[in-house]
Amino acid sequence: MLEIKDIYKTFNAGTINEKTALKGLSLTLEDGDFVTVIGGNGAGKSTMLNAIAGVWPVDHGQILIDGVDVTKLSEHKRAKFLGRVFQDPMTGTAATMGIAENLALAKRRGKMRNPFITGIKNSEKAEYKELLATLGLGLEDRLTAKVGLLSGGQRQALTLLMATLQKPKLLLLDEHTAALDPKTAAKVLETTDEIVNRDKLTTIMITHNMKDAIVHGNRLIMMMDGNIILDIKGEEKKKLTVEDLLHKFEIASGEEFTSDKAILG
Amino acid sequence: MDISVLINALPGALAQGLIWGIMAIGVYITFRVMDIADLTVDGTMCTGGAVCIMMMLSGQNVVVSMIVATLVGMVVGMVTGLFHTWMGIPAILAGILTQLGLYGVNLKIMGKSNQALNVDKYDLLVSLRYVRNIEWYKNTILIVAVFIVIIVALLYMFFGTEYGSALRATGCNPNMARAQGINTNFNKVIALMLSNGLVALSGALIAQYQGFADVNMGRGAIVIGLAAVIIGEAVFGKIFKNFALKLLSVAIGSVIYYFVIQVVLWIGVDTDLLKLFQALVVAVFLAVPYWKKTIFNHSAKKVVKANDTVEKEA
Lengths: 265, 314
Known about the structure:
By secondary structure, chain A is of the alpha/beta class. Chain A contains ten helices and ten strands. The longest helix of chain A is centred in the last third of the chain and has 18 residues, at 182-199. Chain A is globular and about 60 Å long. Chain A starts with a strand and ends with a helix. By secondary structure, chain B is an all-alpha fold. Chain B has two domains: 3-269, ABC transporter involved in vitamin B12 uptake, BtuC (Orthogonal Bundle), CATH 1.10.3470; 277-314. Chain B has helices spanning 3-33, 41-57, 62-85, 91-110, 140-159, 162-172, 174-179, 184-210, 221-236, 243-267, 274-313; strands spanning 114-116, 212-214. The interface between A and B is medium-sized, with 35 and 22 residues.
C-alpha cells in the first residue's frame, strides 16, 4: 500500500541550523497494516509523515502510495490518497465553519469542487448526523455549530471522522491524542481503533506513549536519528511488553532509553 | 453652521458611500474571508476608473466599459496573486508592488494624470448630477443600491457552493484545506481576482459619478475599505450572523463612513487633515479586537490560577 524508498530530508541546509531529519528511510506497508511509531524528539517521526503527505519535497528517494509514485505531487494532490489527523486540534478543522460544512469539505477530498453546486446537499446532512452519533459526543445535534466552539477532544474526533469520511488509502495520525487530557485521549484512541478496524484502513500512528504503541496496531516501528531502528510485527508484536521494548531498544541503539515520559506514559 | 447645508449634502454622501461600499465588499473578501491584507486596491480603484472613462471617451457603451474595467481589475488581482503564490512574495508586499506598478499603467491608460468626461455628452449610468431632481429610475442611489443587492446575492450563493466553501476553508485554515485536497495557492489567486474585480467596478462607478478619473483617485482606498468593514462589523456584528447580511453590513458601514466624513467637513475640519483623521480612526478600530483579546486573556489566566489552587487543596 505504501512504499518509501531511501528518502532523505535536510532542513536549513548550509546553515548553522542544518538538521538532517531523514537519512535514507525505507518502509513498506502491506494493505491493512496498522503501524504505531515511537521514538524520541527529533527522531524523524513527524518528518516521515510530512514527507508522505507532501508538505515539502524530499531531497532524495521515492514514495509510492498504492503503486502510484507521488514523490513529485504537491500536498493538495496527494490528499486524495490520504486521511490526516494532526497533533494540534486546531490544525485539522476550519474553526469559523460549521461542523457539517467541515464534513462536506472532507467528503469532497480529491474531487472537483463545483462553483455552481451547493456546498452541502440536504441528503448529506442525515449521513453526517448518523456518523457524528457514532462518536457519542452529542455533536449530531449541532451540525451548524462553528467548529471553533468545540473542545480539543471533540475537534480531534471530528478530524478523525473527516479523515476517514472518504476511505483513504492511508491514514496518517501524527500524535493525534498528545494534546488531549488522558480520558479524552483514551476515548479518541478507542474511536480510532473502531474506525480503522471497521474500514480496514492502512494506518500509521505516531505516539509518545509506549503502552499505546504496544496495545494498538499489528506492527510497531521505533525511529532514531532519521531512520527505523526497530520493526516488530506479527506474533512478536502481540506478545510485546514495555520491558521487552526497552530491552530491544537498548540492543538496537546501543544506549539506554532515557525518556521518562516514554516509560511512564 | 447651517444644518440645511449638511442635509443637502447627505444624498451625495449616501450615493458615494454606496459606490465605495462595492469596493469595501471586495476588501471584505480578501481581508476577512481570505485573511489577506491586499493593498493592490489603491491602484485597482484608479485602473477601473481609467479604463471605464477612456473606453467611454473612445465611444464605447457604458455597460461594456464597466465590464471591461471589471475584467482588467481581475487581471490586476491575478498579478498580485501570482506575485504572492508563484513568486512567494508576502501578500502585503505583493499588493504594494502591483499598486506601484499600476501607477505607471494608469498614467499610460489615461495618457495624462487626469481625464474628464462631460456628463451632458455621454450617457452615464451614475453621476453626482443624477442624485436629485431626476426620474426615480435614473437615480444614482437606486442604481448603486441595486448593484449592491445583486453583488451580495451572487457572492452569497457563490461562497455557499462546493468551490466557495473551499475558498472559505483556504482563508480560515490553509493547512486543513490542503489536507482536504484544496489547492490553496490557486484559490488565493481566484479570491484576489474576485476582490479586485469588484474594486475596479467600484472605481468605474466613482469615475462616472465624479465625472473624471484621476491617477490619485485610489489613494487611501484600502483604508476606507477597512473602515467600512470595521464600522459594519462594529454596528451590526452582534445581530448579523448570516454571510449575506455581513456583506450588506460592510456596504452600510461605507455609507456610515461617508456620513461621518460629511459631518466632519460640515463642522469645518481642515480637509488637509482628513486622511490623517481616517488613518487614526481605522488604527484605533483595528486595535480594539487586539485589546479585547489581551485583556480577556489576562482575566482567563486568573481563572486558571484559581482552579489550580482548588485542585491543590483537594
